[in-house]
Task: structure prediction
Amino acid sequence: MKNVAVVGASGYTGVELLRLLSGHPQAEVVAVTSRQYEGESISRVFPSLGGYFDLKCEAINVESIAARADVVFTALPHKSAMDVIPDFLNAGCKIIDLSADYRLRDQQVYEQWYQAHTSPDLLTEAVYGLPELYRSAIKSARLVANPGCYPTSVALGLAPLLEGQLIACDSIVIDSKSGTTGAGRSLKEGSLYCEVNEGFKAYSIANHRHTPEIEQTLSQIAGQSIQVSFTPHLLPVDRGILSTIYASQTKGYSTAEILNIFQKRYADEPFIRILPEGQLPNIAYVRGTNLCDIGLVADQRTGRIVIVSVIDNLCKGAGGQAVQNLNLICGFDESAGLSAAPLFP
Amino acid sequence: MKNVAVVGASGYTGVELLRLLSGHPQAEVVAVTSRQYEGESISRVFPSLGGYFDLKCEAINVESIAARADVVFTALPHKSAMDVIPDFLNAGCKIIDLSADYRLRDQQVYEQWYQAHTSPDLLTEAVYGLPELYRSAIKSARLVANPGCYPTSVALGLAPLLEGQLIACDSIVIDSKSGTTGAGRSLKEGSLYCEVNEGFKAYSIANHRHTPEIEQTLSQIAGQSIQVSFTPHLLPVDRGILSTIYASQTKGYSTAEILNIFQKRYADEPFIRILPEGQLPNIAYVRGTNLCDIGLVADQRTGRIVIVSVIDNLCKGAGGQAVQNLNLICGFDESAGLSAAPLFP
Amino acid sequence: MKNVAVVGASGYTGVELLRLLSGHPQAEVVAVTSRQYEGESISRVFPSLGGYFDLKCEAINVESIAARADVVFTALPHKSAMDVIPDFLNAGCKIIDLSADYRLRDQQVYEQWYQAHTSPDLLTEAVYGLPELYRSAIKSARLVANPGCYPTSVALGLAPLLEGQLIACDSIVIDSKSGTTGAGRSLKEGSLYCEVNEGFKAYSIANHRHTPEIEQTLSQIAGQSIQVSFTPHLLPVDRGILSTIYASQTKGYSTAEILNIFQKRYADEPFIRILPEGQLPNIAYVRGTNLCDIGLVADQRTGRIVIVSVIDNLCKGAGGQAVQNLNLICGFDESAGLSAAPLFP
Amino acid sequence: MKNVAVVGASGYTGVELLRLLSGHPQAEVVAVTSRQYEGESISRVFPSLGGYFDLKCEAINVESIAARADVVFTALPHKSAMDVIPDFLNAGCKIIDLSADYRLRDQQVYEQWYQAHTSPDLLTEAVYGLPELYRSAIKSARLVANPGCYPTSVALGLAPLLEGQLIACDSIVIDSKSGTTGAGRSLKEGSLYCEVNEGFKAYSIANHRHTPEIEQTLSQIAGQSIQVSFTPHLLPVDRGILSTIYASQTKGYSTAEILNIFQKRYADEPFIRILPEGQLPNIAYVRGTNLCDIGLVADQRTGRIVIVSVIDNLCKGAGGQAVQNLNLICGFDESAGLSAAPLFP
Result:
């Protein structure tokens, strides 16, 4: 049994972490923080949690929280995260950080896309928390940088192809669509119901901050520098990311042959489902779970492979993957607290 | 550990039962039936279940299923249910029937709203499976008639008032709104996405088949015959029922006083949450769970009490309550398999 | 041809007015105001209007606007509206006010539900802009108080029954459901997409500010004081109000007889459609129009009539009715600019 | 004034045509056909049209319809369309065909993607009804093949680039997302509300029938054979198509320079809005209209241009473009009946 804290609990990532942790057999939530709701019951902030938690939101007091918690999930905006993480580490906590602050290994790249980094020394220590790629390093990490939602869907969809050198590295086009929880719970006109509902749009074309994170992971897998075209879109649904990925094949394999490569690569992965030929994934089929569903077609006509990779952005794309990382660093069963079936419909 | 079968697994109630049973610690699903999908994997019918079940849909063969299953959930349309239930009982199975066939105790009433009943003798044996009202009878039942979704939300919202004789029995108006899973998975023009989305309508005014079921339960609680106005509406959401119930008060109590009566009545109930004064329920806060959230206001101006009762129609209104009944008839913890927190957002 | 101004153009009522006025054959929009977007093009605020208007948002300058506009639509919050309306009147403009400031004739009632009134003398002059009830008074009005969305749906649904003394005045229960545009475009957590989508809730039970407005109109029609139970709900759709209204019948008429009374009452009304027996309205079928669809059932079992009245809350419930009032005070064809068919799906 | 008929009126394309024609100043609908609803009022089939049309659905009788109608819209499935179109032409009607039957000029290509063609001689006569590309030919056409929804969005988004030889023809990747009206009104499990809502999926990867239509138009513009990767997706909204199009630039132009080329190309087009740099389109901003909104970014990092092209699939993608073609072949103002502003929200 480990005691955990959720720092920054009043956003959608926070409530997802709490939902999952409420059913975790070996983790107990001992503290939740929220500047906005300090002093208020977390069950008042999220009535869905009524009866599941009897905790009041606290201000962030590192000493106090570190005295109670073994592992701290930081679900803060970037910048705010690195303001407190070094102190939590010094106080002896392990950290699973859901912000972007420790995902990029190259300080310069971080500073180009975000702002000055205040603890750059930790960038090399932090382990990128994508278990399917970095499982063993995560197990012994003190600071896990939980991946972004888009990068998770993309890396899992491309890893077998890059590992097998099956695609041309300069040909990758990534067209991603995310549910609106991805935009967070802060008050913006663009997040209002009537602005999102019955609408659909692309945003941040060619300059979304997940681009360098995607490229870092793909480059590392490929062993060479990769640049991608990445276009995110906003879907009028609560949850789910679907990434449609295009790349030119180098070997002329059939759909069946490539599916076979995926199946072998992910055979032991508890959260990845490779769909049989002719089936394609739907965000609705992974709702509320840590699953990643992948389907693909090798188009002989154009020579491109089209991969469709689907996750729940709040779960495998945030809180679920964070719990998976908790399980790894604590030596729990990797699926602990994460085995419930998808909610469909 | 009990072996269970789901007869009629390819509808929304079927997939909900399977979702819940996949995480049940003491129940194992040994058979699923579907006429439409006979021979096909249930995970192909519902890709969400991929990796959770390795079962093929069977035709209904009572002998074969009874040889494997201790308890059978029948998730068939009315009429089809009573065609097979007597045989399952004779074969020694316990039955939790999610159809309407054994909910009404009075054969004549059943035949007036449905059709001729082919096993009327079982009507008196069947126990109405609303645990908050009939828990002890359920525990020893051989045949549980799992309540309708609307009637569940209404009975739980009115029971404390009727038990306490706090409202005028001829004053009850029930305005209910249900998510679209309530319309089932069969192909009807009115269930198409573009007919439901961005729409809202009332239907079956003054003649919905849940009316006699509601009146039966309310009359039984009150000890006198009760007639209600009941209007169902179709909500453009997947899941959830919200019933807004109006009744004239007989005693002039305040909101706080009535809430207190509800809190006492349901103090030991694991699935009922009475909201504090000033808070009102939302279907989003019970999504995917067996919870019933109740809020209310005693309007001194008009003398009416307005109760708002909220459930997930597929869960507490169908599959979840069925699992709760399974737990009762098998002597399991009543919350087994039903303790996961709501999925919000 | 009349010149009109839209004061408070950056909300959902504003954009709806502009949408309708863009197609009006005899009205030209000469000014739009918005404090928040002063100096910005209205087509930048609402990209949907690109190419339809070439106007910049102004601050409210009564003198300047009055010099250009014959009629001013005020789409401001209550309180803000009465801060400027007397000045516009003094400057010679006619006013169609979409706020609540001049809807209640009784200053005391207004002040009980809102705040102190700063131009109470205008309360008696203002004409309540529900053409189906007050057409001739509107035609000569200088100040039209455009009705609230809920009150419009309710008054049209009950008028024939109250006029004919067909229902018991103390028996009225109104259960209304509104699309989310009704909550406005201001930034509130409860208006975020992920808080509304897949959710449904009641709010302001027994204390919604439209209650006195509803009661004023119903009382006036009935010639006696009427109190109602009124419960609004928030629907996860953009547009539409559906009010389900219950009242005890005094005469035992059949559904057909009551429908006949409605058909006669509204025979000459261009915007009211009485549905034949057996059909019920859906908000989807009036989308984007000034129509009000009404269906009903006389339930012989309970003695109650159940009326379902449906409008588009932004159109007949706000901007469309305002244009209808414009047509009346300007002597235009009452349907000018309002004849487009509903957008379905 | 022209008399028109809508053959195949009971689908979503049919109701959209009727909606638009109800407000057309120079067209009168004299006949509607529907096999499924023969004898029933079209206002009963689509209650939204109540009061707008007083027509009963007929069976298709070419002679009878040709005696009344000058122009016939055929909104039938492919195959069914070519079963009747030659007869209508022989009977002297002009035809605007919304099916796929006459869109492809090459019989062999048609037969490879569809089935045997029964009037291949008409393939060369038919004019592809995309006014922005083929306006003058349309004006004198007897048979207009109204373009598919996806192809419309793609052709308008790529035409200026191909005309200017600004992109590499083998680099085109098209990722399109369509609202659910695009799936039609026929009864399919995949079109049920609960299967679509809160879901998102790709479908028909590398084998969607709009692919040859897209390639035909692009090849014609470019003057060379073009093959594209085209992936359609199903959006949980009623209306709207957004195509995100990727292509490698040949000239290194900036976003501003390319936008300038688009603005010039479409300067006189009444239905195309080129968004300024920094703005991107949203399907919500063209809802219910014949508009096509285009935004783009030239990504210097990858050398690709990303174009986002947005239409209402039922309007510019079907019924609206059909009315635009009606206007052209009848010599009406090209915007007649099509000038209403978008319905937002």
Notes: DSSP finds twelve helices and 14 strands in chain C.
